[in-house]
What does this fold into?
Amino acid sequence: MSTVLLTGANGFIAAIILRKLLERGHTVVGTVRSQSKTTFLREQYKAAVDSDKLKFAVVDDITVPGAFDEVLRSHQFDAVLHTSSPFHWNITDIDKELLQPAIQGTVGILDSVHRVAPSVKRVVVTSSFASVVNRTKGTWPGKVYTEADWNPTKREEGLKDVGSGYYASKTLAEQAAWDFVKEKNPSFTLTTLCPPMVYGPPEQEVPSMVKLNTSDLDIYDIFNGTSDPRYGVWIWVDVRDLAEAHVLAMDSAVAANQRYIISQGNFSPQMFVDYIWKHYPERAAAKGINKHTPGKYYPDAGVYGVDASKS
It folds into this structure.
């Protein structure tokens, strides 16, 4: 069994990765931004904590050079799963709150592993379909995205607005990761996973419904009648499958130095509306949920697709 560093261990995706790692018998050290973020996970996995299979380390600012040095020196790690990067829209400073954490956090942990953790052989980074999709092409009917595609957004474009900033942060961070590996030729291999919209049951701490992870909050806001469907990208993945992909990428030799799109295929937020009206019609009526056009999931011309056969 391996000793694994899992960054952002209290996050939506990471919480399920954590469960899967522990179920497989791995020893996990999870990083969080403050000690208070460990309380829920300590209670959830008390047996693992008591048996030293699960430990925590506080890394309050992943953009600081050497932020991960201390925790990486504290154990003989076999692998690192880096999931820690911001995904929310309540941003006031795009560069400081989106671009820097994503880029510097990713390059920073690779640099720390390279310098102080020679035992690490595998690094898996959670990237995003945002680093694949070309937003300037819109719905791009007939296009089938693969791992060979890259979002052409530049840093300057990313500073224009929060949406552009998010896409740029993911693209620039992943590109920087591959550049690091090319330039430094480290002793570890790199795997990047590029999921689109991630939905599924939350296993992280959810103190209130408004504190849901961003993607699940999209569904709840429709269910609560506070928002129409929010359209982002036209493909999705179940968070449980994405978590499984992280663990498989860590263990699989063929995943070394590879990039993967992790996706179940196309979807439309209109599907959420239709489901709510079908299964909760009284609530939907009481909340005044707009039906829009039932069964109308995509524009008449169609939308792009994805080829996830590699994963």
Remarks:
- Residues 94-116 form the longest helix (23 residues).
- The chain is about 40% helix and 15% strand.
